[in-house]
Design brief:
Pathway: Amino-acid degradation; L-kynurenine degradation; L-alanine and anthranilate from L-kynurenine: step 1/1; Cofactor biosynthesis; NAD(+) biosynthesis; quinolinate from L-kynurenine: step 2/3
Radius of gyration: 23 Å
Strand order of the largest sheet: 6-12-11-10-9-7-8
Pfam families: Aminotran_5, KYNU_C
Function: Catalyzes the cleavage of L-kynurenine (L-Kyn) and L-3-hydroxykynurenine (L-3OHKyn) into anthranilic acid (AA) and 3-hydroxyanthranilic acid (3-OHAA), respectively.
Protein name: Kynureninase
Shape: globular
Strand content: 5-15%
Distance between the termini: 40 Å
Structural class: alpha/beta
CATH architecture of the largest domain: 3-Layer(aba) Sandwich
GO biological process, one term: L-kynurenine catabolic process
Helix content: 25-40%
Largest sheet: 7 strands, mixed
Bound molecules: pyridoxal-5'-phosphate
Length: 432
């Protein structure tokens, strides 16, 4: 697409956007009567307008039915997660039986590692991307220690090449081959939170399996952002949070994927009563018998309130016909943002803003990570003061995530205008 740096052009794209009305389903943060331009859906997705209603509905069910809400009325809580499974499966390319909403993300990462990281003296290593999200680093580190191994020896990180910001698939694959049969687990982010790089998940999975390792992904920044085929790609396991691109609310419910090929094997797991075979769960018998599929990893009873919020948020994806149409818009929106950032650089006269996220749309989702050469934090703070909300990562990175469900091309155009004006003032020579 040939982009233009004009409001007329941005407005035309918005008028032609088949998904334009979805924006009306969300609440935008507002200060002193003015809505923000929200470019932070990678961190916390916006609240759908129906959220209050569905929450109140569950509060009413609790008030009116109390304990009977588990089995009676419409949508009894006992089976509430099943509707979420149905909505969730197409978003990640899985069968319903392979996914289940439960717990929170880091907790799920631990639970899945209990099943899928089974180190032996010969095979104990975990391959991961350097600069993974800290929670994942801590989870992995502590799992390794739990099994009596040394994190320094067991963790193999893949780094970008000198002078580069993102990873090359060939380097990831080479690292996997190099460590071969010493690798127990390949555990990557689907999209790296800092650089916005979308890894070649299929190639990584294939390379991991070729050396006999298990392959899992943390999809916090990928789920609801990019279309995936977890089942077909033969990914062993994955987990994600719902509160980023899926708008499931702060600290909202997480979900897991376990490939069906593992259902027949007797996997180690940290069990709880809610993962027990559904038909006989309330016999309260001794001896854990897991429910078939991903449901068998549930530990505690359904967290109905956050689940209700997640359910309502996922219904919006279904109304948009899931990720295929959203992805088309997302590629255009992010491409437009990239174009606008480069326009700002041109007007300033040098590369003040360097995008470290890959330029190839197949290697990124909605997020662009932008290194600000000079006075980045001051400029970022001024953007916020002007009602433009991205996020700031030390020491010098601004992340903007135009989300196709609720961002417009006009949002991007106006962000460019503000960024240029603010930069001109803050970078002016006499401003030191
Ligand atoms: C956001 C994010 C988390 C957060 O974990 P919580 O348990 O939900 O606090 C973990 N890992 C990654 C990769 C993330 O992007």
């Amino acid at each position: 697409m040939i982009f233009e740096n004009t409001l007329t052009f941005a407005n035309r794209l918005d008028r032609e956007d088949p998904l334009k009305d979805f924006r009306k389903k969300f609440l935008f943060p507002n200060r002193m009567g003015k809505d923000y331009i929200y470019l932070c859906g990678n961190s916390l997705g916006l609240q759908p307008k129906v959220t209050k209603e569905v929450t109140n509905l569950q509060l009413d069910r609790w008030a009116n039915l109390a304990v009977e809400g588990w089995f009676h009325g419409d949508e009894p809580w006992m089976f509430y997660h099943k509707e979420i499974k149905r909505l969730l499966a197409p978003l990640v390319g899985a069968f319903e039986v392979e996914v289940c909403p439960m717990n929170t993300l880091t907790v799920n990462l631990h639970l899945l590692m209990v099943s899928f990281y089974r180190p032996t003296s010969k095979r104990s290593k975990i391959i991961m991307e350097a600069g993974a999200f800290p929670s994942d680093q801590y989870a992995i580190e502590s799992q390794i220690i739990h099994h009596g191994f040394e994190p320094n020896e067991a963790i193999i990180e893949v780094f970008p090449r000198e002078g580069e910001s993102t990873l090359r698939t060939e380097d990831i694959v080479a690292k996997i081959k190099e460590n071969g049969d010493e690798i127990a687990l390949v555990l990557f982010g689907g999209i790296n939170y800092f650089t916005g790089q979308w890894f070649d998940m299929e190639a990584i999975t294939k390379a991991g399996h070729e050396v006999g390792a298990i392959v899992g992904f943390d999809l916090a920044h990928a789920a609801g952002n990019v279309p995936m085929k977890l089942h077909d790609w033969n990914v062993d396991f994955a987990c994600w949070c719902s509160y980023k691109y899926q708008n499931g609310g702060p600290g909202g419910i997480s979900a897991i994927f376990v490939h069906e090929k593992h259902f027949a094997s007797k996997l180690n797991r940290f069990a709880g009563w809610w993962g027990y075979n559904e038909n006989s769960r309330f016999k309260m018998d001794k001896g854990f018998v897991p429910e078939a599929g991903a449901d068998g990893w549930q530990v505690s009873c359904t967290q109905v309130l956050p689940m209700a919020i997640y359910h309502a948020a996922l219904k919006i994806f279904a109304e948009a016909d899931n990720l295929e149409p959203l992805r088309i818009k997302s590629i255009a929106l992010t491409g437009y943002l990239e174009f606008i950032i480069n326009e700002v650089n041109k007007s300033i006269g040098f590369t003040q803003y360097r995008i470290i996220t890959p330029a190839n749309p197949a290697e990124r989702g909605a997020q662009l990570s932008i290194i600000a050469k000079e006075k980045g934090k001051e400029i970022f703070d001024e953007l916020v003061a002007k009602h433009i909300l991205g996020d700031w990562r030390e020491p010098d990175v601004i992340r903007f995530s135009p989300v196709p469900l609720y961002n417009s091309f006009e949002d991007i155009y106006l962000t460019g205008v503000a960024l240029l004006n603010i930069s001109k003032v803050i970078l002016a020579p006499n401003n030191d």
